[in-house]
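ESCALATION

Customer reports they have been waiting on this structure for their group meeting. Please prioritize. Original submission:
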Amino acid sequence: MNWDDLRILEICARNGSFLKASEELGVSHSSISRRMTRLENRLKVTLLHRSAGGVTLTDAGLTIVAQAEKMAQAALNVKNTTEHAASLAGSIRFETIDSTAFNLMDYLAEFTSLHPDIEIDLRLNQQMVDLSRGDADVVLRATNDPTEDYIGHHIANHAFGIFGSVDLINRYPAGTPLNEMPWVLWSNHWTDQWMEELGLQPRVAMRASTAFGVLQAMQAGIGIGHMACYAMAKRDQFLCLHAPKPQWDLQIWLLAHHSMRRNQRVMTFNRFLRRKLIADKPLIEGKVGSAARPLGLALR
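Update from on-call: job pushed to the front of the queue and completed.
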């Protein structure tokens, strides 16, 4: 048996289709379909229900994937605790959201200068990756519900305010209500609840699917929008229109999988970045910078 086929089976089941699995794996969906058919023929059992809507696991498939996940977890634990675990050399796959990453570049540059034998593989992702699958070694992520088997630190409370570019704000008379300005919102609608709480029903000029996309649209003067105070902390071309509200906060965590406890490369990186981020805590929580001096424009 090709054990890699079991990994592909799990990815197919998780994504619910050969097409989405192919996008994650970077191979054609027809190739994945053929491999799954060969695996079923080899095992003499049907593992996947195929339909126009996608694929789902059969009972046999569920059993095999459960065992494959245990094998993958065991392999990951061995890899993380033995592969150059005591060495300050090799690669660290560091995952975070794009707008946060740009604030960290000076820190990452300092780390690579201190540890020239460590290569940082920076991965930008809008969703929390699965460390138990080995998708990354370290994540910096805003979440109020970190996975229990991860180790790490709650750095700060990630504050969010409403910001707009100086150029855009100057196009409107002083005191213009926020509802009368154009907005840039997130494609996944995750800030819509905040809008409802504020009683806002503004004109939406654009939606974007990434934090940096929202930020770039705001910078271009397309609209105002919700944004993390940390992303705006050092950007003089933006003003805070509405102060952060505690109920908008998300905890920001620096996390690694528990099997990384003895990996000196990863632990060294975590300690370094944790110190830098704790020093930035007033910026992350909106205690200093433009977020601490909102214009306080009317909501309606």
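Sent to customer with the following note: The two ends are 64 Å apart (CA to CA).
Escalation resolved.
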